[in-house]
Design brief:
- The protein has one domain.
- Strand 3, helix 2 and strand 4 form a beta-alpha-beta unit.
- It is of the alpha+beta class.
- The protein is globular and about 40 Å long.
- The protein contains three helices and ten strands, in the order E-E-H-E-H-E-E-E-E-H-E-E-E.
Length: 163
C-alpha cells in the first residue's frame, strides 16, 4: 500500500497508572476519522491502555509488540500461517492491550504470556468483553471485534471489514 495513504495519529489515552499519556497509531487515511472517534470514546470512558507505540519500535515484529502489551494499528504483515495480507497491512485494524486480550485458537494462546487472560470471566484492567465500551465504541464507527469470531477468538483485534 502506498505510504501516502497512511496517517500517524497522536492519541491521548489513559494508562494503567491512571494518568493521561500520548501515543501514536498509524492508520489508513480513509479510517483516520473513525479511529479518532472510537479512541476519543475510550478516553472519555477512561478505558486503560498500557502503551501505544508504532510497531517500528519493535522492529515491526508483531510478537514483540504484543509481548510488550502495545496497542498498535499498521503493520505490513500477513495473517499468521497464511499468504493473505492482514488488515493491519492496510492500516485498517487495531490491536488493543494484547496481553489482556489474546488471540485464542484451541489451546494456542498468542501472545503466550497472555494465557492467564484466556478466562474471559475475569475483570482485569484492560480486558475487553462483549458489549463493553471498547466494543461499542468501534461498533459505533462500523468496525467489528475479533472476540465475536467463531473459528478463533482475537480479543485484541478490531477491524473495519471484520477480518
Amino acid at each position: 500500500m502506498p505510504i501516502d495513504d497512511l496517517r500517524v495519529l497522536t492519541v491521548t489515552y489513559w494508562g494503567f497508572d491512571g494518568r493521561a499519556h500520548s501515543g501514536k497509531l498509524m492508520v489508513n487515511r480513509d479510517v483516520a476519522t473513525d479511529v479518532v472517534t472510537a479512541m476519543r470514546t475510550l478516553y472519555d470512558a477512561r478505558f486503560p491502555i498500557r502503551r501505544m507505540e508504532l510497531v517500528d519500535k519493535y522492529g515491526a515484529d508483531d510478537e514483540r509488540s504484543m509481548t510488550a502489551d502495545n496497542t498498535s494499528a499498521y503493520n505490513g504483515r500477513k495473517v499468521p500461517g497464511s499468504t493473505v495480507w492482514s488488515q493491519h497491512a492496510y492500516g485498517r485494524a487495531i490491536d488493543i492491550d494484547p496481553l489482556e486480550n489474546p488471540e485464542v485458537q484451541g489451546a494456542v494462546v498468542d501472545p503466550p504470556a497472555a494465557a492467564r487472560f484466556v478466562d474471559r470471566s475475569l475483570a482485569a484492567t484492560g480486558m475487553i468483553h462483549p458489549g463493553d465500551i471498547v466494543v461499542r465504541a468501534f461498533a459505533a464507527v462500523g468496525w467489528k471485534w475479533g472476540g465475536y469470531w467463531h473459528s478463533l477468538k482475537d480479543y485484541q483485534h478490531f477491524s473495519q471489514n471484520g477480518d
